[in-house]
Amino acid sequence: MAARTMHKLTPDPDTMDPNSEGDACCIDFTDFEEAVQTAKLSAEMIQDRKLSRKAAKIAEENGWGD
Q1: What is the mean pLDDT of residues 29-49?
Q2: Could you tell me which of 1, 12, 26, 48 has the fewest CB atoms within 10 Å of its CB?
Q3: Structure pTM?
């Protein structure tokens, strides 16, 4: 959701159903293109420490950090 927010996309569109528990994160999509776009943005964020820090800050500000 933070990676999507960084790219000015809706963080939680109707086509996405995030379900996180503990250390696992499962996101179900009903739209394939939305899933691919989110996966690419997330992979980019995970590989770049600066983007990861920015995403962590966005997540904390929005209550997504738990």
Answers
A1: 94
A2: 26
A3: 0.75
